[in-house]
Amino acid sequence: MSRLVITVVVILIVVVGGLFLLAGRDGERPMTQVEKQVSLANLQ
C-alpha cells in the first residue's frame, strides 16, 4: 500500500478513537450551591 493510504487510515483511526473517548466522558458536573453572607448596606 502507498504511504498516502496508510496515512489516511492512521488519521481516521485517531479521529474515530478521539470521538469515542470524548463521547465516553462524563460531561455533566453536579451543581454546587454557594451561600454567601451579604450585609444589608449592599442591598440599598
How would the blueprint of this fold be written?
Blueprint: H1 3-24
**Secondary structure category:** mainly alpha
Number of strands: 0
Number of helices: 1
- The value of Rg in angstroms is 25 Å
The portion of residues forming beta strands comes to under 5%
Q: Estimate the global geometry from the Cα principal axes.
A: rod-shaped
SSE string, helices as H and strands as E: H
Main beta-sheet strand count, sense and barrel state: none
Distance between the termini: 76 Å
Q: Poorly predicted ranges (pLDDT <50, ≥5 residues)?
A: none
Approximately how much helix is present in the residues? 40-55%
Mean pLDDT across the residues is 85
Write up this protein.
The protein has 44 residues and is mainly α. The chain contains 1 helix and no strands. The longest helix has 22 residues, at 3-24. It is rod-shaped, with a radius of gyration of 25 Å. The termini are far apart. The model has no long low-confidence stretch (mean pLDDT 85).
List keywords for this structure.
single chain; 44 residues; mainly alpha; 1 helix
In short:
The chain has one helix spanning 3-24.
